[in-house]
Amino acid sequence: MARTGGFSVSSDAREAVGDYKAGWHDPEQASVRFDAGLTEQVVRDISELKGEPEWMTDIRVKAYHHFMTRPMPTWGSTELLNSIDFDKICYFLRSGDGTKGDWEEVPEDIKNTFDRLGIPDAEKKWLGGVTAQYESETIYHSIREDLESQGVIFLDMDAGLREYPEIVKKYFCSVIPYQDNKFSALNTAVWSGGSFLYVPKGIHVELPVQAYFRINSENMGQFERTLIVAEEGSSVSYIEGCSAPTYSTDSLHSAVVELIAMPGARIRYTTIQNWSNNVYNLVTKRGVAHENSTIEWVDANVGSKLTMKYPAIILKGEGAHGEVISVAYSGEGMHQDAGAKVHHLASNTTSKILSKSISKDGGRGSYRGMVTVSKKADNCKVNVVCDALILDENSRSDTYPTMEIKNSSCRCEHEASVSKVSDDQLFYLMSRGHSEDESLALIVNGFFEPFVRELPMEYAVELNNLMALEMEGSIG
Amino acid sequence: MSTEAEYLALPAPDRAQHLWRYTPWHRIHPTGKPDEIPSEVSPAVVSLTLLDGSDLPKGVSISAIDGGIMRNVESDVGGAFIRALSSESAIKITIDAGVIIEQPILLTLESTGSVSGIQIDVSVGANSQSELLTLIESGADWFGLLRRGTINDSAIFNDVVVNRLGASKLLRIEQFTLLRDAQVKLGTVGSGGVQTKGDLRYILDGKGANLQVNGSILSSGNQHNDHHIEIMHQKPETFSRLKWHSSCGGKSRTVGTGMLRIVHGAKGSDSAQVFNNLLLSKDAEADSIPELEVLENEVVGCGHGTASGPVDEEQLFYLKTRGFSDTGARGLLISAFLNSTLNEMGSKQTHTWLDHLISDGLSSLS
Fold this sequence. Notes:
The structure holds two protein chains of two kinds.
Chain A: E1 2-3, E2 8-9, H1 11-17, E3 30-33, H2 40-49, H3 54-69, H4 78-82, E4 93-95, H5 108-117, H6 119-126, E5 129-134, E6 137-143, H7 145-149, E7 153-156, H8 157-163, H9 165-171, H10 182-190, E8 195-199, E9 209-214, E10 221-222, E11 225-230, E12 235-243, E13 251-253, E14 256-261, E15 266-273, E16 279-289, E17 294-301, E18 306-309, E19 312-315, E20 321-330, E21 335-344, E22 350-359, E23 364-373, E24 381-390, E25 396-405, E26 411-419, H11 423-431, H12 436-452, H13 457-470
Parallel strand pairs in A: 5-9, 8-11, 9-12, 10-13, 11-14, 12-15, 13-16, 14-16, 15-17, 16-18, 16-19, 17-20, 18-21, 19-21, 20-22, 21-23, 22-24, 23-25, 24-26
Antiparallel strand pairs in A: 1-2, 3-4, 5-6, 7-8
Helix pairs in contact in A: 2-3, 3-10, 8-9, 11-12, 12-13
Chain B: H1 3-9, H2 25-28, E1 42-43, E2 45-50, E3 60-64, H3 77-85, E4 90-95, E5 105-110, E6 115-124, E7 129-137, E8 142-151, E9 156-164, E10 169-178, E11 183-190, E12 195-204, E13 210-219, E14 224-233, E15 239-248, E16 253-262, E17 270-279, E18 285-294, E19 301-309, H4 313-321, H5 326-342, H6 348-365
Parallel strand pairs in B: 1-6, 4-6, 5-7, 6-8, 7-9, 8-10, 9-11, 10-12, 11-13, 12-14, 13-15, 14-16, 15-17, 16-18, 17-19
Antiparallel strand pairs in B: 2-5, 3-4
Helix pairs in contact in B: 1-3, 4-5, 5-6
């Protein structure tokens, strides 16, 4: 078995897809597939198909109109953004016949896909709950009984809306309104799937819960919507992974993730993004942290054609803490435009951003960040560190940090550096008997170490292996 | 096409660009209406002497230029605007090749009338050594300064621009090109004006060129100081350092945006930029965006940093235990903060002169 970012892939699958280890696809077997293109009717049809309440249909339609009138961003990778043809994308595709609670009931071909990706294996060993989404909807879902009995709700978002409409209505679009940006409007209009996680007061979910997102079809748009609410004094860790087949045409993944950490709560949201390099990954993620709560985004971007993702934290309550730790790998034909945003609205709030990126084979890695400290936020502390490695002469690295400080008691630091792998480091390792590739992989793993140590061990090992594979033949 | 038509043909700048994010073009425009070019423009009164007031030595000359400075930045709205309104007021300062001038040259620009502007072309000859201090003094409500400079091979050149305007707005646009082995220090001292927008671009276009850019910005009252500094490494083994210190008091706002770009092929480049902000009052604001774009992997180093914070309480306590009053101790620390960049701007003569110039502003802050 060859290993990929978090999961296992059989060797025959590897041969079929070349360098990208999750790039095979299954024959499409859709039970419902909408025609490509986006209209108000498509939005209404998605809502009707799901039997949603009227308020949700209304918000979808409003978001659709906002999406249609809102211009494309004029910053970032505008050339790639403007090349997205929204009329060629399929906005809803249902495979199978609903969410299963038993792995054996999942349709055979979909089950094989997730078996190849190692999901059931991971669930057995170290997860508190699992959601697997295939195309537009969740096909498998489970949660440990002990968590369920404690009142933890872990459902796919469609089921969450059906079973807990009052909670969803309260928090949906409360952190990221559909007017926030063009892609949050698109997601709100056509969202399908995603996770709904609610942790009651004082409950600590010891094992992480996981969601895995897979796009299988060509020209597919995946628009999952995730909402996590951690009530007072609770804690939870959520991990998501994603992959897609390698096609010659492009797919679009545009998710919205909203986190709400009530006083004293803690949410850690970990993403291992490993899309194939024909996927546009345009995601809006934001959390609100109330008094003395903590939100952590742990974010790895190792795939996609273009990623524009800036996990954000609004430190709303006094004493809240936010942390964003991210790594990005930009290979051939990839542009990782990732970063972080932290807004200090209350006093004694602290934040830390650590960003690491590697560019190789003509890839472009960009850090784009923003830290603001409001006038009323006294005694805040901010620390931002960005490091980048460029491995060859065709690649590039950019850093675009923004710091807006409106309070004189704030201590704010930012530092960034761009460098190459030093010949001295390589020479030292090679003089100790390592090959050039091994030496480079060791150096890269060391570079990513501050990030990797934040991952569960299984993920950390897989990420190291994945980076070692990517580094093969990088020097010379 | 006339210079007026050239300006009017340009699109309004997009605020998504960091250059225009904090000071949109209409805010720094003299009338606030970007499609207007004021018809009544007063020329700046120019004087060029040595710092001690004596006449210029041989090898330094000043002349008028017909048609103004040519610019090649297509989207340069500010430069096009100054060109359009000051076509009658353009001068060239030439420092001949090989000359060594011991004393700094002082260029005084006194603005008059309501709107005033000037274009200055600076040509520094190869292997020369000189210092140019430009003092912008009060008068007009709005002053536009457009500069272009070429620092030829192996020249050693220090340049300092001091803003001592009163209740005026200043738009300063400049582009300097450094050729092979040129060693240049460019300084900006800002304590005057109610609103300043600077777009300062430096191109390291010769192998081995060495550039240091320093800024000491003293903001108080309702001042708005916005400087955008772009440094482009175009040739191998070029070196640059940008150090920008701003102290922000009253209800002032200080903005520093930097762009450090190392193009493909500029191997062995070494560059760094730092923006430090000292926040002195509850209502002051400091914004920093130090950007990097690195398209070459064979670099010695490329980094940036920014830090914002109040006066260090421990340092303050230490000075007070040594007998300083609170005001005196604060004044000393602010002075030290600004002097750390002021010190780097040129010769000892230049520093003494600068120190004297900003002392008034410092006493008002502390």
